[in-house]
Amino acid sequence: MFFVIISTALVTGLVHFIFLPNVMLLGASGVVFALILLSPITSIKEGEVPLTFLLVAVIYLGGQLYEGLFVRNNVSNLTHILGGIVGAGLGFAMNRNRMNRY
Questions:
Q1: pLDDT in tens, 5-52
Q2: Higher pLDDT residue, 100 or 59?
Q3: Which of 6, 8, 32, 59 has the most Cβ atoms closer than 10 angstroms to its Cβ?
Q4: Mean pLDDT (whole number) for 56-60
Q5: Cα–Cα dist 79/75, whole Å
Q6: Residue 79 burial by CB count (10 A; 0-12/13-18/19+): exposed, middle or buried?
Q7: Measuring CA to CA, which residue among 61, 41, 58 is closest to residue 50?
Q8: Helix (H), strand (E), coil (C) string for 11-54
Q9: CA of 48: how far to CAs of 85, 90, 91, in Å?
Q10: Alpha-carbon span 28 to 13, nearest angstrom
Q11: Contact in structure between 94 and 42 (CB atoms under 8 Å)
Q12: Are 19 and 79 contacting, i.e. CB atoms less than 8 angstroms apart?
């Protein structure tokens, strides 16, 4: 869990700094999105993608994509989207490693 939190914070912070260097970040919402997309992946079987993961990804990431394109507010939608992608990627990678051990 600590690895996911640190990895997500580093990736989202670094990408945000590269693309938006004059905008400051506050909070851990990218990490929250990583954990939201990580949770449906924790108990999948080999070669399957859970329906709950697809629904969560479409609802949360789709909502952030919509807000990023059409809503002007002071929310870093890029960080939310990247956090979700990092969480999902780490979840699938860790799950694959777990399956290869057995």
A1: 999 999 999 999 999 888 888 889 999 999 999 988 877 777 778 888
A2: 59
A3: 8
A4: 91
A5: 9
A6: buried
A7: 41
A8: HHHHHHHHHCCCCCCCCCHHHHHHHHHHHHHCCCCCCCCCHHHH
A9: 18, 16, 13
A10: 10
A11: no
A12: no
What is the reported pLDDT for 83? 94
| pLDDT tens profile 81-93 | 999 999 999 988 8
Helix, strand, coil shares of the chain, percent, nearest 5, are 75, 0, 25
For residues 101 and 28, what is the distance between their CA atoms, to the nearest angstrom? 32
What is the pTM for the complete model shown? 0.83
Residue ranges of the domains in the chain? 2-101
**pLDDT value, residue 101:** 61
Distance between CA 22 and CA 6 in Å, rounded?
23
Instruction: Return the structure tokens found at 8.
Output: 């997500």
